[in-house]
TrEMBL record:
Source organism per UniProt: Lactiplantibacillus plajomi
Residue ranges constituting the HTH tetR-type domain according to the UniProt record: 10-70
Designated name of the protein: TetR/AcrR family transcriptional regulator
Gene3D superfamilies given in the database record: Homeodomain-like, Tetracycline Repressor, domain 2
Keyword tags: DNA-binding
UniProt DNA-binding residue ranges: 33-52
SUPFAM superfamilies assigned to the protein according to its UniProt record, in alphabetical order: Homeodomain-like (SSF46689), Tetracyclin repressor-like, C-terminal domain (SSF48498)
Pfam families membership: TetR_N (PF00440)
Amino acid sequence: MTKKEIPKDPQKVARIMQAACHAFATAGYRGAKTDVIAADADVSKGLIFHYYGSKQGLYVATIQHTTQVIIDTIDPAIYDVPADLVDMIVRGTKYKSDFGRSHPDEMRLLINAYGESAHLPAAVQKQMRALYDQTIATSRQMIRNVLKQMPLRPELDEATVVDLIVGVYNQVFSEFQAHMAKHHDAQSMADVQWVVERAKAYMEILEHGFVQR
């Protein structure tokens, strides 16, 4: 049986999401307190649990909401097909940096959520993985669009090339998570610029090879 959707007051939801985003961004999942979130949102703590079931449910809802905020504020120019893989990384980074300046809590929340997902409850990790997979699915389409503009060697299978590039994405993501497991000082894209440079270096090698001709 499908779980019945609980009707929610849009204004209260907006206040809860704003308060939860700030709390989780500044204190992390474990440090954030639902009673503080409730007070900042001017709602009862019971209402939060009525709407989201648990702190875990609230956290995942906040991540989903923040992801949607990013989608809703994307400049249409971001959908223009980049010239190559490196341009794709640079353009995506510029957008994220601009977004981070106008939405600091949202950016810090996502950096910490994905960077420290290994420390989250198992159920939340599973849902975070599903969100990451959705992001990768979107990236796959962008990669395919870029490859159509590039002179691939005729013997190469496009699907295999896409898989290779996604594999690099996953490698960079793993390096990012390993770094975040040791360092907890990332506030914005500027603090993780090394990840961007790493991705650019990988993409340049993929495009041009590593054997001198």
